[in-house]
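WARN no homologs supplied; continuing
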Amino acid sequence: MSVTKKTCALLAMALTMAACSKGDPKPDPEPAEPTTAVDPATAPILDDATRASIDAFMKAHVNDDAFVPIYLGERGVAVDGQDAVRFDLTTGGFADEDRDVGPNSLSIASLVPSLDAASKARPKTAEDLERYVVLAPNIYVEPSVTFGTFTEVLYTTGQRLIPTSVEGSSRITIGGGQPLKIATRRGDSWGGFNAVTPRLEVGPPDLEELDGAPLELMLFIEPAGVRVAGEGALLPPIAGCPADGPTVCNEGGADASDLMGEVRASSGAERDGALSELVALYDLSALYAAVLKIKVRYPDETVVTVAASPGVPFAVVSAVLDAVRWKRAGGGPSGSFADDAAFEAAAPSTRPFSYPADALFADPIFAIAR
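OK structure emitted
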């Protein structure tokens, strides 16, 4: 029996024997819907599916009008569910004309009208203002958005989300240090963690001259790996890493600069593949083992300051934070795992914005490196 006759027989058994037995011709297939290429210059920054996923996530895990949803996507920024500023197509970030006082400005003037509108949409009573009720960002970050763009939004938000009195007369300015909720992609939904708005570091952070708290743990993410500083000094490279390199170098000593360029230049499935390859370069299990040793000496410390080179995609930042925020079961005495798969499998399952029961360094503060 031919393939065609077998197919016909199977269909007849499932539906009816009439079509095959009588030899009736099969209906012509429906014409395929024409596909329309997405024009990044005009396509919505926040599409309907993403808006729905953010709305559902906020309702389930935030449910607080004091947190303003801000979406950082591949095409730009949306505030309070409305497209606000479109990125420059060449750089994938803010254009010079979007900035307040020139190409090196951290303040994004084009975001101000949307942030002001979000503030005025949440008027506070005089009693609220007396209690110093804040407005705070709940930022949804797509994996390809760079750390530089992320921190520019944080800086501008810290200056412009200003509670307004219902009487329209009292305004208070919120500086750095306000609460912050960060949400990152977890498949079709989101995962979230609490943080604090950034402090400003002019130039690369001076990791060798840290003062203040006994530990002051700092992570600086760069294309070659992650530098770790604490106790007022930069930690030396671990075994197997170059003497002049970061504390925890990438797998095989690789520099990820070219791969970061591929992420910026690609889109869709190609970009997703490049991001996965990029994150895999970072030796997260070795980073975990390094900070676990620090935790043994400072069991009560939970704060970590995180900074990165401006071009590092947020997918890497998120992966680094996942590696240092909580302890993982199943590792060896020094926190080592047999391989990356075992390390990833040991990640605890936590609700968004929950505080891990077995916290490592679960209170991140973002620093802006310029």
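The chain has a mean pLDDT of 81.
OK
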